[in-house]
Request: fold
Amino acid sequence: MIEITYLDASKQERTMTFESYQDFER
Reply:
């Protein structure tokens, strides 16, 4: 599983999880 944490436009932390890299590419 891949987990990505990033800040959105209003500087709030968001966490996205992907089952695989293929999911991330979509």
Notes: Helices lie at 21-25. The mean pLDDT is 85. Residues 6 and 26 are 18 Å apart (CA to CA).
